[in-house]
Model the fold of this input.
Amino acid sequence: MADFHQNGNIATLHNLRTQSTDELSYELETFAQSRKITLILPCLYSELEGPAMPNILAELSKVTYLHRIIIGLDRADAEQYRKARAFFSDLPQNHIVIWNDSPRMQALGKRLEDLSLAPMEPGKGKNVWSCLGYLMACADSAVMAIHDCDIVTYNRDLLARLVYPVAHPAFPYQVAKGYYPRVGDGKLNGRVTRLLVSPLLIALKRVIGDRDYIDYLRSFRYPLSGEFAMRTGILPDLRIPSDWGLEIGILSEAWRNLAPQSVCQVEIADVYDHKHQDLSADDASAGLSRMSTDICKAIFRKLAADGTVFTTHVFRTLKATYYRCALDLLDSYYNDAKMNGLTIDRHREEQSIELFAENIMRAGQIFLENPHETPFIPTWNRIHSADPKFLAEFKAAAAADEAEFA
Done:
């Protein structure tokens, strides 16, 4: 995707294939002397047994500019935590595995429950939120990055390009969002971005009119990518969604808190492939069905907060408009794939569109029936205000878990 197009809303930083990974890494080593860089890896224990993580660790072992790596480990028992620590032990960087299911962490979670400040549900959002809390407790990093742990096409160039815009002292960016083409096994992937988010934003613009927020989201080439880099000064007030709206929620927080000149997107990979979710057409609580509903709710909530009035009639019109927009885009995706020697199963793509159309209505109905729903985890500033000792004790609990299982 080597071009130099700018959309006029946020900066797009391209990979023009004129700078090597070694050259970028050398510059990042220089930047890191005055602004330390931390990487956060939110992962499930099952991902340690998958095909992606061994290669990710091998690539990260070559990275010389990281000050610390924070691994948030979900769905692990004591023996699995011990194995996870051994798995990550070859990393040459300072690192810690935070066992989110440990008795100590559960006790801290109960403390937050008593204050009505606990995350609503387990998942990636809670995992990222916990890792950010540990990072803030350390209070020694100026830049942080997050990427997924199931990237089967991972190489260290991805991290270097992701971090560079916010690590460069002369750049104004507080947030960098990664983008890439989703291609794998001879297919065009990225169904939720291609078949839900892109046509939904077009449909919203037609139904409710011009909104700066819609133009902002449409500026991102891959709004659902799990790769972010940020300057740590914005983290204490960052509201993390607890559901599948995490990526849209973080972009919305950047929109709420920062000037457009402080946000950029950066091309971080030529090819990107990772674990694929099932469509789960028969189970609205799982897979892409649950994900699509949560993403729609996140967008609707943000537009409502900016003054948009939603009714059942609006959602019906939006569903019909979305369906037409999605089918039109499907033709473009099909032709694009065909020209590049890739395949698209049009029947399954249209099945996805039909499901997403129903979930737009489902998300709208949930929004109308629960207008006060706030699926955000409280900010760390609020946690600190309610319990000033919590962050320090959270960091101590992570250290105690490590010591016990050393």
In short: The two ends are 46 Å apart (CA to CA). The chain has 15 helices and twelve strands. The CA atoms of residues 241 and 374 lie 9 Å apart. The chain has a mean pLDDT of 94.
